[in-house]
């Protein structure tokens, strides 16, 4: 993916990784449009970043996605990059038979990007060069037992990205997977933003942008901090890391 001169849609761009990525990409001379449900956060982000745009979108709502995908290219005909970043992460107790969290997680983290990609792909295919960037997680590769459905959606998005990339191999659309480690955001609540075990957000974005800048053909953005999880199976220490994450999940509650 060429790093400048794009018009980029970032879902969940009003906070955390999405916001920081939006700001970094704007610095690289891209037009950036952030999307999410929380209008106040979107407004704060665009106010702090003149030239940035925002649009309202709930990725759990199939009708909203269809409406959105029909309208957005009218306002931003140059749109050529979709970043599927919006996501939720909930701890789940599998002995509690309430599946609300599990279902919401699948709808947001898995069906959301699949639906949005499908809806915007016809437009992206019409651009000279385009990209779909899917934000997964190190937990796609070594699950944390405390968040079963979350891990499963991220593993599924890894798999989906592989097939999407293969089907679009000879097309104008690059498919890139961004694989964050544990990062200081409020994904699982305010305490995460202060957790010293999590990577500072600025450091994560710096390392990610370095890879995107230096390797325009990269398929998977694997920064050093997440490499042990991404490569655990190949390195032969999956079981050890799985155990460590299970213990960490219990601690984090
Ligand atoms: N932080 C980490 O440790 C970490 C590690 C690996 C992967 N990730 C991934 O990174 C991505 C960003 O997470 P984050 O850490 O930056 O957390 P975050 O600050 O909570 O960001 C999540 C974003 O998703 C948006 N969102 C959630 N549900 C949505 C919906 N139904 N429709 C539209 N937008 C929705 C939220 O915006 P609204 O509330 O405004 O809708 C929010 O801006 C997620 O996919 C997450 O799984 C994070």
Keywords:
Rossmann fold; binds NADP nicotinamide-adenine-dinucleotide phosphate; alpha/beta
What do these coordinates show?
- There is one protein chain.
- This protein is of the alpha/beta class.
- The protein has one domain (7-252): 3-Layer(aba) Sandwich (Rossmann fold).
- It has nine helices and seven strands.
- A seven-stranded parallel beta sheet has the order 3-2-1-4-5-6-7, with helices on both faces.
- Helix 2 links the parallel strand 2 and strand 3.
- It is globular.
- The model has no long low-confidence stretch (mean pLDDT 97).
**Could you give the count of β-strands?**
7
Strand content bin: 5-15%
* Tally of individual domains: 1
**Which oligomeric state applies?**
single chain
Gyration radius, in Å: 17 Å
Bound molecules: NADP nicotinamide-adenine-dinucleotide phosphate
CATH class division: Alpha Beta
Give a quick precis of the structure:
With 253 residues, this protein is an alpha/beta fold. 47% of the residues lie in helices and 13% in strands. The protein has a seven-stranded parallel beta sheet, with helices on both faces.
Please write out the topology.
Elements: E1 7-11, H1 16-27, E2 31-36, H2 39-48, E3 53-56, H3 62-75, E4 81-84, H4 100-125, E5 130-135, H5 148-167, E6 173-178, H6 201-214, E7 220-221, H7 227-230, H8 232-235, H9 238-252
Parallel strand pairs: 1-2, 1-4, 2-3, 4-5, 5-6, 6-7
Helix pairs in contact: 1-6, 3-4, 4-5
The protein binds NADP nicotinamide-adenine-dinucleotide phosphate.
């Amino acid at each position: 993916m060429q790093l400048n001169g794009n018009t980029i849609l970032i879902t969940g761009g009003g906070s955390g990784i999405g916001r920081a990525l939006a700001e970094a990409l704007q610095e690289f001379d891209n037009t950036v449009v952030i999307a999410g449900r929380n209008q106040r956060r979107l407004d704060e982000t665009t106010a702090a970043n003149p030239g940035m745009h925002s649009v309202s979108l709930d990725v759990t709502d199939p009708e909203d996605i269809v409406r959105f995908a029909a309208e957005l290219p009218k306002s931003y005909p140059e749109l050529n990059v979709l970043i599927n970043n919006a996501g939720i992460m909930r701890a789940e107790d599998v002995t509690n038979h309430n599946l609300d969290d599990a279902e919401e997680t699948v709808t947001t983290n898995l069906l959301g990007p699949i639906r949005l990609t499908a809806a915007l792909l016809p437009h992206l295919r019409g651009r000279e060069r385009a990209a779909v960037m899917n934000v997964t997680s190190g937990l796609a590769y070594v699950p944390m037992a405390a968040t079963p459905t979350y891990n499963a959606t991220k593993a599924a998005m890894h798999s989906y990205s592989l097939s999407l990339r293969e089907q679009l191999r000879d097309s104008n659309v690059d498919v890139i997977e961004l694989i964050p480690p544990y990062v200081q955001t409020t994904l699982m609540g305010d305490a995460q933003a202060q957790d010293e075990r999590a990577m500072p957000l600025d450091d994560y974005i710096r390392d990610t942008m370095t890879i995107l800048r230096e390797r325009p053909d990269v398929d998977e953005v694997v920064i050093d901090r997440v490499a042990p999880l991404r490569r655990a199976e190949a390195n032969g220490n999956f079981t050890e890391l799985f155990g460590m994450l299970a213990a960490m999940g219990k601690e984090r509650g």
